[in-house]
C-alpha cells in the first residue's frame, strides 16, 4: 500500500506552524515498512499495514532556534499521521511505541528509514504530479485531492521519488539540502526526544 494523499496533506496541516514542523518519509530500499494502528490496516493485527512509503509530520514543540536547524529536542513532539487510529495528533513517544514499534526486533527486510525534511524546505522543494496515484491503466487508485498538484518553488512538477528513496544515505552530512536527511530509527528517536529504542 502507499500513502498517497498524505504527502499533499502534510503541507496543508503544517502551514501555520511551519518553523516547528518536520516532514518525515518512512520507507526503505525494499519499499516495505510495517506500521501499526493504521486506519487502512488489519484490525486483528493492531491495524498493521506494510506501506511502500508513508508520510507523517512531526511538530517539534521545543524551543526552536532557526528554520531548518537540526538539533536535539527536549520537549515531546507531536506526530500528525492522517492514517493513524491513535489520538490526533499523537505524542511522539506514544507514536514511536505503538505505530512504529520502535525498539522491537523485526526482520531486517522491514527495517524502517526516515527522511526528515524541515517544513519550510519541504514547502519550497516538494513536487508531485500525482502519477504515483494512478495504476498501470492510468486510472486513479483512489480519488485524488480536490486541489491542484503541488509544484516546487523552482517549477519542478514531480520529484516525489527523490523523497521516498532511502538508498542514498550520503546526504546525512548536509541537512539543509532540498531533500533532508535519512535517519535510522535510533537517530529519529534521538532527534525528537523519545527514550524508546535500542
From TrEMBL:
PANTHER family (alphabetical): PROTEIN N-TERMINAL GLUTAMINE AMIDOHYDROLASE
Domain of life, source organism: Eukaryota
EC class name: hydrolase
Similarity comment text for this entry: Belongs to the NTAQ1 family.
One Pfam match: Nt_Gln_amidase
EC number of the protein: 3.5.1.122
Any one Gene Ontology cellular component term annotated for this protein: nucleus
InterPro entries: N_Gln_amidohydro_ab_roll_sf, NTAQ1, Prot_N_Gln_amidohydro_ab_roll
Keyword Hydrolase: yes
Alphabetical UniProt keywords: Hydrolase
Reactions catalysed according to its record: N-terminal L-glutaminyl-[protein] + H2O = N-terminal L-glutamyl-[protein] + NH4(+)
Oligomer and partners: Monomer.
Role noted for this protein: Mediates the side-chain deamidation of N-terminal glutamine residues to glutamate, an important step in N-end rule pathway of protein degradation. Conversion of the resulting N-terminal glutamine to glutamate renders the protein susceptible to arginylation, polyubiquitination and degradation as specified by the N-end rule. Does not act on substrates with internal or C-terminal glutamine and does not act on non-glutamine residues in any position.
Protein name: Protein N-terminal glutamine amidohydrolase
UniProt organism field: Chlamydomonas eustigma
Domain Protein N-terminal glutamine amidohydrolase alpha beta roll: 16-192
Molecular function in Gene Ontology: protein-N-terminal asparagine amidohydrolase activity; protein-N-terminal glutamine amidohydrolase activity
